[in-house]
Amino acid sequence: MLITIARAVGGSTVARVRRPDGVVLDLPAYDRKHRVPHDLAHAVTECELGMADGVFGSIAGGGVFSNMRLVSGRPRHDAADRSKRLLAANKAPLGVAEVVSAAIHHAVEHDDPGDVYDNVRRGWGVFRTEPCPWTAEQLAAVVARLAELTVDFEATGKVVLTWPDALTSRVPAPAVAHKRGRRGRI
User: Fold this and answer.
1) What mean pLDDT is predicted for residues 26-43?
2) Fewer CB atoms < 10 Å away: N or C end of the chain?
3) d(Cα 99, Cα 96) in Å, to the nearest integer?
């Protein structure tokens, strides 16, 4: 999947997503007051930390958020149902992706990576009981990568990223409906 994050009219940003199935979607952001695009923080954080069930892994799997707009391509006949199942299944991982990305975003936005590990650990603890799976060094590397891409974004007004196929969220199978039929008659 190809992700292009670019400045939009009005000062915010938009992430244009080109999925392998040929569907192209726009994901608008409401981040006018930030130097670091919110969706760039998500994409970098989720990719670098292997979060397949976050925002962009969910989109790669067929998830469509309510604020997204179809630009081109033809969605599957069952796209809405698949998206609904996927987003419901990924509710907690999407929450984790939000708090972890927010901590990384804050570190780069304010040029203060000092507390990123503690902030991520606290956010992780809201959703999970097991220990945070990432080390301070791993999170520092994500901060460095986002800072590097932010410099590129500031210079050119856009950043293009390739989302790895391995980080595509799986779509849960539909619930099996029990067939109701006629019982044998005599």
Assistant:
1) 89
2) C
3) 5
Residues 6+ apart with CB under 8 A from 142: 44, 45, 48, 49, 104
* 32: helix, strand or coil: coil
Distance CA 90, CA 169 (A): 9
Among residues 119, 121, 90, which one has the least CA distance to residue 105?
A: 119
**What is the C-alpha to C-alpha distance for residues 39 and 46, in angstroms, rounded to an integer?**
10
Q: What's residue 9's pLDDT?
A: 82
Using the predicted structure, report yes or no on whether residue 182 has a pLDDT greater than 70.
Answer: no
Q: What angle do CA 128, 59, 149 make, to 5 degrees?
A: 85
pTM: 0.91
Alpha-carbon distance 83 to 96, whole Å? 19
